[in-house]
């Protein structure tokens, strides 16, 4: 396994782990909403992004209008827009059904780039689908479906989240491809600043719609201290580190494999949820996580073998 491929795989898995921390948000923010948390997280991430840009050497050459325009677009597609669709899906059809649609990401990603013949992806994809079905099986029981607000709204939002994520993965890789000299840190900083600015711009609209609880519950430390602490902590880990790791993965892996690896976010999310709830997994959850991991490992092996064959042919 060559160094570039290995770095890409570990970066994608780390990004999936970082993004999976978002699954524990509803359990740690008390009476505040996920929109309040997103505001804190993205603003802090934007400040970190500014710090990265100010500390980078010869950064002025990268602060061009085309670069800012591309970064703002990617920030909306992959972070603000993706967050809003995922959150909306969770609100209308529950926090478990929506992640199940992540299983479509590798399929759409490979369809978009056609980076590997479908026959090589069928077994890894089948394992991913079975794993997702096992992990999310209890979400589709009659009892749980009865508590869902609206599948007609939630499922289209979940599908929209899948489309936005694939769009972001493809667009981000294309943007980096035409900017081979762009440092990953600077590019991450541009995207982080873009996400922070957009969440600040959305705050007055969201507050008018009653999506934020900060104006009602208060901005003071006594009331919102826990929100600030978790917001800053997960901003640094889930957003800053996640964005950086995904940019590294985008430089080293095809979108189809990156999309396959990002499905491991569900497995990490299940494990994190179990830790938060201080319980052992059910047999179905344990089997689902195991099958998901098997699908991810098999995908890595398939892509590595194909890459090895291609290199041998070229040499």
Write up this protein.
- By secondary structure, the protein is mainly alpha-helical.
- The chain has one domain (3-314).
- The chain is built from 14 helices and no strands.
- The chain has helices at 3-20, 34-55, 65-93, 97-100, 105-113, 118-135, 142-146, 151-177, 184-208, 214-217, 221-252, 255-262, 264-277, 283-314.
- Helix 13 packs antiparallel against helix 14.
- The longest helix is centred in the last third of the chain and has 32 residues, at 221-252.
- The two termini are 16 Å apart.
- InterPro entries: EmrE-like.
- The chain crosses the membrane at residues 7-29, 35-54, 66-83, 89-108, 120-139, 151-170, 190-215, 227-249, 261-280, 286-303.
- Keywords: Membrane, Transmembrane, Transmembrane helix.
- This is Drug/metabolite transporter (DMT)-like permease.
How many domain regions? Answer: 1
The DSSP helix count reads: 14
Mean pLDDT: 78
**In sequence order, what are the helices and strands, one letter per element?**
HHHHHHHHHHHHHH
Largest sheet: none
Computed over alpha carbons, the radius of gyration is: 20 Å
Shape: globular
What percentage of amino acids are in beta strands?
A: under 5%
Distance between the termini: 16 Å
Structural class: mainly alpha
- Residue share in helices? over 70%
- Uncertain segments of ≥5 residues (pLDDT<50)? none
Number of strands: 0
InterPro entries: EmrE-like
Organism: Aureimonas pseudogalii
Keywords: Membrane, Transmembrane, Transmembrane helix
Protein name: Drug/metabolite transporter (DMT)-like permease
